[in-house]
What we know:
Helix content: 25-40%
Strand order of the largest sheet: 6-7-8-3-9-10
Oligomer: single chain
Order of helices and strands: EEEHEEHEHHHHEHEHEEHH
Strand content: 25-35%
Low-confidence stretches: none
Radius of gyration: 17 Å
CATH superfamily of one domain: P-loop containing nucleotide triphosphate hydrolases
Number of helices: 10
Number of strands: 10
Largest sheet: 6 strands, mixed
Shape: globular
CATH architecture of one domain: 3-Layer(aba) Sandwich
Mean pLDDT: 95
Amino acid sequence: MLVRVEGLHAGYGMTSVLRDINIEAQSGEAIAVIGPNGAGKTTLLKSIVGMLRPTRGRVHFEDRHLNGLRAFQAARLGLVYVPAERELFPTMTVLENLELGAYRDVRAAAEHMRYVFGLFPRLEERKRQLAGTLSGGEQQMLAIGRALMAGPKVLLLDEPSTGLAPKAVAELYRQLSQLKSAGLTIILTEQQVRLALSLTDRAYVLEQGSIRLSGRSADLLGDPSIKKAYLGVA
C-alpha cells in the first residue's frame, strides 16, 4: 500500500475535526474524498502531507510513517499537495512559478517541464506571462503543473474545480484523466461529485469528520443515498 491512514484524529486547537479516519491508496490508484463543506476534507489532506499534526493515529507512506514530518519533508518524499487556493506567485511568470516546483530533483527539471507543457500546452504559450493575469482555469493548470515539476509519487488535490467555469472544469478533468492513465497516484477532494467519481477508482464519503461510506467509485455513483445527497437525484 502506497498511502495508508490509520485511526487518524485531527483538528485545530481544542476543536476536533476528524475522528478515526482510515483510508488507503495503492500505487497508480485514484481516490476521491467527497462530502459537504465543513466535513473535514481539507483537514484530511493537510494531515496526510504534514501541514497539520494529527492528535491521534498514523499516516504511512511507502515503508515509513510520517508522523512528526513537516510538509516540506513529506513533499521531498513525493507527497505533493495542491491547495484549493492554488498559492501561486502572481507577480512572477508562468515559467518562474513552474521552476519553483523543481525542488525534489533539479536535474530532472527540463524533463518535467517538457511533460508539463505536453499536458498543459497553454502554459507553454503563456510561459512569459505573469501568473496573476491568467484565467482561473489556467491558474489551476499552473498550480498542478508546478506540483508535477516535483516529480510526485502522490498528487493530492484539494477541490481542484473550485471557482472554475464549467468548460474549464471539463478540460481540467480531461487532463487529470491523462495523469491517472500515466499511472500517477491521485488523492483528491471535490464538490463536483459526479466528475470525481467518474475519474477515480475508489472513494470515501466524509461527513461531520467521519467516514460514512466507502467503496468503488462506480458503485457509489449508483448508490441511492449518494444520488440523493450529492447528485440531486431523488
